[in-house]
Model the fold of this input.
Amino acid sequence: MKYIDCDTHPMLPDDGECLKPYLSQAMLHRFENRVLSPPSPFPSSRYSNLGGPLLRVDARPPQGGLPASSPEFMREHYLEKYEVLAALMLSIQGASVSIWTDPREATALASAFNDFFLEHWYGFDQRYRLAAVVAPQDPQGAAAEVRRLGSLDGVAAIWIPWIDTLLGNSFFYPIYEAAAEENLNIVVHPTGTEAMYQGAPTFAGGLPTSYSERWVDLMQFGQAHLSSLVFEGVLERFDNIRFAFTECGWTWLPAALWRMDTVWKAMRADTPWVVKPPSEYVRERVRFTTQPVDEPANQKVVLAQIAQMMHAKDVLMFSSDYPHWDGDDPERIIKELPSEIADAVFYENARDTYGDRVGVAAG
Done:
């Protein structure tokens, strides 16, 4: 089986010292005496009953450091073990720029994260491909970063971390315009900041009490951003960009598409710029990743039914979420999905979505 993994999370080997060579002297002065990226993905969590580490202990490099902080050990522990052809890197630490109060600092730090991972990970093994993070609170700065990275080897996509503005809003148009110019698709992914920091998105109805509740509710953001992109007309306006909804779940998709199509038919005057059924836009232009795979009773039968209803052969891509505790083993996932869609999910859809930017030949 050929694997392209659409969601892995490399970590910094230290508390941010490694980013300093990629910052200007002016920004270094601003960041002086500040920890740029704390040892855990975020400074603290309001969910004190987390109950355990977020990262797999067995992914910790022998020389020490955070799990997945060594490109060499991750290659041995994961890429070689499963013969992964390409691994899309999403830096969770880098995505925390979305909650920085100064947009100039956020943009500078995003660039530093991108340059670090391109040099030390893609430069070490070209199977590591970067979903470059941008600072969403600074659309013009983010657009400049997209254009700076557009022609660089190793950049496979652009990651726009969530903030408290839905992605269909015209606020993000400068980023989409730059992505369209550079032929870069957009990754959507939770950041770990949700419901914990000002400026981050919060949950419908209020704040969850426990981490477990929060984890279950994360799918709300996927649904909200998807309907925003559809009904605000982004998928019609920027017709050469695809959006990859990563770690947002996918078993909810059929019901969401049914409801969107029903509302669109009944209220065409409300969104006249949406010129075809939402489900068509989604099937053509939006992709989803496998992790997390829900586990209903009679899992194999039920997941096969959902996969058929959502056209998984066209829209679903494999992701492991390595090295998180709730990540998925590719050998297990392949047993749960229908065999007739395995090649599409584990390889073809990712290759079609990211093209030559994943460094894997077609076919």
Notes: The chain has one domain: 3-358. The beta strands are 3-8, 84-89, 128-133, 155-159, 186-188, 243-245, 286-289, 316-317.
